[in-house]
Design goal:
Distance between the termini: 52 Å
Helix content: 40-55%
Structural class: alpha+beta
Largest sheet: 7 strands, antiparallel
Order of helices and strands: HHHHHHHHHHEEHEEEEHEEEEH
Strand content: 15-25%
Number of domains: 2
Shape: globular
Length: 486
Amino acid sequence: MRRLQGLIRQVRSGVSENLSLILLFMVMSGLQTLVSVSNPVGRDDLLPWMMITLSIATFLRGFPIGGIHHPQLTRQHSAWGAFTRSIGMVLVPLACLFWHDASFLSEPVYLLIAAVLTLGTPIMLAFARHEGRTAWSPPGPRGVIRWALFIVGLPILCLALGFVASLGLSKISDIAIPSLLVGVAFVVTATIARRPQDARQRRAAGRKDGQPWSPDRFPVLLALLGPGLGMALLILLFQVVGDLVRPLDFTQAFIGVAHVCVWAAVIWSRPTAVARACLLWEVVPTGGSDQTEDGEAVGFEKPTEGALRFNPNKTRRINLVHAWVVPVREARIGDLDDPIRDLWPRRAPFVPQHVLGEASFEPDPVTLQTQDTEITLRLQSGQDVQQLDAGDVQTRRLVILRSYVPMRFRRNKRKSTYRWDQKVPEGTIQILDASVDTATLQTGDILISSSEGVARAYEIEIGAPIYSRYEAEAFRPPQLEDYVKV
């Protein structure tokens, strides 16, 4: 049963992370039925359909690989720069296809289209020259050699592959040529937009142990060999079983689309965050039988009509929000994962403390893999629950309400606060008293704190991931005075 739960959670996590590629596969598979086999796109080698799919997947998911800037430096970002960089990367697979088809189909117009697409890539990336740029530019090789290889070498290589394919020499060439073209399209698309400045920074900074820095070539080799070898095995499989089942043609184009989408998810896999920026919104209850003035929500300090029934799905945010950075446990080990020498002394590592205790995204208890959807809050042994001050005992009550409880709680025993209340699933309410050591928080949960008859509620929102430990350390964790009304 535990293995089944782990498998379900892994599938659910994979689907949520690659939802855009899954939708792309479904859309392209549906459009396949509308394309005639006489259409130039509906060729039996599946190259046009796969290159179009790769271009769309690049726009949805693609980013430069193989080049990482110095983590202590702040990068420039803009919507225009990100858009033009994506367009420049999108043009690469189409340019590879048209250069190949110019000699494969002997169509002169394809040469013109391929030349426009090839020149369009550096033009678009020139508009995006400030995207990802940092302030430090050490001396070293510039991008002239890269652009010369792209503008001259890519057309020559694709033309040569198309010319050999047009000869139809053997079955080996029918396997090797499409595979090489797919591999070249993947690796050029994934590396053309990376900045030479990033490599110069890493080389000038060096490693912490004093050794020279060497780039990680595995992502580039994976982008080149992975899709290419996979395509070769796919074509070989259809050649072997073609006599028994049916040969590879455009009716199996959905297989090529799946191949591209899977490798796009592998090559452009989402990095693991070191922390997530969270928000605590102050909310007030609204709705029900409470009377409101001018449509405004009634605060906790005003008496309500009848018994108070707080519905976590019926709240209204006010203009008070508290920032909160929660680390992701076992995401990476900094010195081993990125042993780069610091440019200046690091600030003290931030303490993942909240006013209630230590908070973090701990690994999933079933799959033991890193997750960033549920916060584990380890309370401070109930020391904030009761406080003795000048002979008076101050009682503080903390409750967490969950709007949508997991499925595993819905079948469990239900309970209610009062006998006349409607029973709710067990996982809906978490009472934080002196006997509770841990609690969990998810997006949409309501944290209610009541002290001496005054209650305040906070809605949890798990925000954007943070991929740099330097960026995470720049945040200030919330303090107790943030929750005290002046």
